[in-house]
């Protein structure tokens, strides 16, 4: 296997140490909900619901504060298409961001409860919004700067990158002025980016505790046999991931070269090989990277393996194996798995 050339995409974030992780984002979101329902005065509750609505839009769309404050809920939130459109006012290019179903319903309910004048925007004094965001962060025990609208937007970007959403889709999602829809390996159309984003958000909304790794990209090769077929998917970072499926499944899924797809692998099916060079292995998929984090437990150890531009895989190994391999943060590592362990999914 050839190692992919470094892709000069530019990072959305420098790292995740200076922003909220997904668990902290969830804790902050629950704190906003608790705070919203804590007042017994109707006028105070209404004002807090407006702030909660602003928070949810920033947290789940990665929008800038001024974009959210300029929203007209009657016009800019499409609950049939599950879309919110930013930039209709202020001379900016209109940007539409998909919403997951449950979030769209919650936003619809909040917008209906808050007393908006017909045609009015969501505008609230930005200084007031920032102050309330800081207060809720402090209530969670976080540094107040991590509760700023800008840091919540950044945290959302990191969350998406660490969940392996393709970088071009994250750039479009966050409204970067010049998103790079083409890598050295795979290019995406605007329609494909929208499909990737909508699919990802729905899966994110429905996700439970099963630890799965997802590789997003395009099918670049299919090798047919009498009963089975080998499907190869190329990611934007140039990793080629192979999966064996039946010919019947190939036909049912409508797989063909150039189609968007994802390959999923359970964390427990990833093996780790500590080596500076590609290991000798019968497993078809051998992905180079480095250990970003090691979390040891009594029986199992979780290793986060960074393999590309913001892409991180989760591998579960026995703690005994982790000690035997002396796995440490920063170590050069290979994530290895069989093509029979890789599941192809399309939407």
From TrEMBL:
InterPro entries: DNA_brk_join_enz, Integrase-like_cat_sf, Integrase_catalytic, Mo/tungstate-bd_C_term_dom, Mop_domain, Transp-assoc_OB_typ1. Residues 208-274, 280-346 form the Mop domain. Residues 22-198 form the Tyr recombinase domain. The keyword Iron does not apply. The keyword Heme does not apply. Keywords: DNA recombination, Molybdenum. One of its GO terms (molecular function) is DNA binding. Signal peptide: none annotated. PROSITE patterns: MOP, TYR_RECOMBINASE. One of its GO terms (biological process) is DNA integration. Gene3D superfamilies: 2.40.50.100, Intergrase catalytic core. This is Transporter. It comes from Desulfomicrobium orale DSM 12838.
